[in-house]
Write a structure and sequence with these properties.
Number of domains: 1
Structural class: alpha/beta
Order of helices and strands: EHEHEHHEHEHHEHEHHEHEEEH
Strand order of the largest sheet: 3-2-1-4-5-6-11-9-10
Distance between the termini: 30 Å
Helix content: 25-40%
Bound molecules: beta-D-ribofuranose, calcium ion
Number of strands: 11
CATH superfamily: Ribonucleoside hydrolase-like
Number of helices: 12
Shape: globular
Strand content: 15-25%
CATH topology: Inosine-uridine Nucleoside N-ribohydrolase, Chain A
Radius of gyration: 18 Å
Length: 317
C-alpha cells in the first residue's frame, strides 16, 4: 500500500520538483495539497498548486488554501529573487481552470487525519503555519498522523536566509517551534542534508529531453532558480531542498538520522535557528519535555538526485 501524504507546500520551483517526484513515485499517494505563503503570497502559491496539478493531469487531487500570514506578524515576500515573481521561474503560466476546495488547509488536514487514523503522513515543504493551525484546531491529530516529514531547519550547518536560519523555519518561527514541541513523530530534513543534494546543470538538461509534461515544465522553470544559485552560492546546479524530503520517504536507506530535541529560536539575531539537544549527550532545562525528532544528518545526495530524475523523466539515457 502506498503511503498517503498531504503535501503542505508553497510552490516554488523546488516545490514543483518535489510534487512531481512524489506524483511519479509508486510508494506514495498524494491525497491533497495544502498551500501556504513562503515562496510567494498564499494567493499565488495556491494558483501555482492548481497549475502544477493541471500540468500533471491530476486535477483529481484537492487543493486547500492555507494561511496567508505567520502566527505572529505579517508575511514579507523576499523569495521572488529565488523563485521568480510568479513563483515558477518567471514563466507566467495561464490561470488554472480549477479552484481550491472550500475548506482551509488546517480544516482539510484535521478532517483527513481524523478520517484515517494512523494513515496520513504530513509532508511539509514550506513554512509550518498550517500544521500549527491544524494542531491548534484539533490537538488529537498529533497522535493520529502516521508521521510528519518536513523540509526545514539547520541543526549543525549555517542557515540560508540568515547566517542562523533556514527559510521555511524563519518564515514562521512560532509555528515551527510548536511543530517541534508536539507529540508526533517528526523527521527534519534540513540544510544539513539538502546542501548535499545538488542537481547539476548537466543533470537539469534531462528534463528538456524527457518528453513528458511534468519534466517539460521543470525544464522551463529551473533555469531561473539555477541562475540564482549560481550567483548567490557559486554552484553550477541547484539544491533540491524540497525533493530531498520526498526522497526520504521513498529511499530512507540513503539517509542517516540522529535523535535530537529541537527548539526554535524565536527572537533576536539567531531568529529561526533550530537548536538541537542530543538526548544523553548533554542536557538543558530549556529542552526538557520536548519529544525526540529524527534529524537527518547525512544523505547520499547523488543517489537521491538520480532517483528523482529517473522517476520524473522516466529513464535517464
Ligand atoms: C526552502 O525554502 C524555499 O525557498 C524552498 O522551497 C524550500 O522549501 C529551502 O530553504
Ligand atoms: Ca518550499
Amino acid at each position: 500500500m502506498p503511503e498517503k501524504i498531504i503535501l503542505d507546500t508553497d510552490p516554488g520551483v523546488d516545490d514543483a520538483m518535489a510534487l512531481y517526484f512524489a506524483l511519479r513515485s509508486p510508494e506514495l499517494e498524494v491525497v491533497g495539497l495544502t498551500t501556504v505563503f513562503g515562496n510567494g503570497p498564499t494567493e499565488l502559491t495556491t494558483l501555482n498548486a492548481l497549475r502544477l496539478l493541471e500540468i500533471a493531469g491530476r486535477t483529481d487531487i484537492p487543493v486547500a488554501r492555507g494561511a496567508a500570514n505567520p502566527l505572529q506578524g505579517v508575511y514579507a515576500n523576499t523569495a521572488a529573487v529565488v523563485h521568480g515573481d510568479d513563483g515558477q521561474g518567471n514563466v507566467f503560466l495561464p490561470a488554472p481552470t480549477t479552484q481550491p476546495i472550500a475548506h482551509s488547509a488546517a480544516e482539510f488536514i484535521v478532517e483527513r487525519v481524523l478520517a484515517e487514523p494512523g494513515t496520513i503522513t504530513l509532508l511539509a515543504i514550506g513554512p509550518l503555519t498550517n500544521l500549527a493551525l491544524a494542531l491548534q484546531r484539533e490537538p488529537r491529530i498529533a497522535g493520529l498522523v502516521r508521521r510528519v516529514v518536513l523540509m526545514g531547519g539547520n541543526a549543525f550547518v549555517p542557515g540560508n536566509l540568515s547566517p542562523a536560519a533556514e527559510a521555511n523555519i524563519f518564515n514562521d518561527v512560532d509555528a515551527a517551534d510548536r511543530v517541534f514541541a508536539a507529540a508526533w513523530p517528526v523527521t527534519m530534513i534540513g540544510l544539513d542534508v539538502t546542501h548535499h543534494a545538488t542537481m547539476s546543470s548537466a543533470q537539469l538538461e534531462h528534463y528538456g529531453r524527457a518528453g513528458n509534461p511534468l519534466a517539460a515544465h521543470l525544464a522551463r522553470i529551473t533555469p531561473f532558480y539555477r541562475d540564482f544559485t549560481r550567483t548567490f552560492n557559486g554552484l553550477e546546479g541547484i539544491y533540491v531542498h524540497d525533493s530531498t524530503a520526498v526522497a526520504f520517504l521513498v529511499c530512507p536507506e540513503a539517509f542517516t538520522t540522529q535523535k535530537h530535541r529541537i527548539r526554535v529560536d524565536t527572537q533576536g539575531f539567531a531568529r529561526g535557528k533550530t537548536w538541537p539537544a542530543r538526548v544523553g549527550l548533554y542536557g538543558s532545562e530549556a529542552w526538557a519535555g520536548r519529544i525526540e525528532v529524527d534529524v537527518a544528518v547525512e544523505v547520499d545526495g547523488p543517489r537521491t538526485v538520480s532517483l528523482e530524475l529517473q522517476r520524473v523523466c522516466g529513464s535517464i539515457p
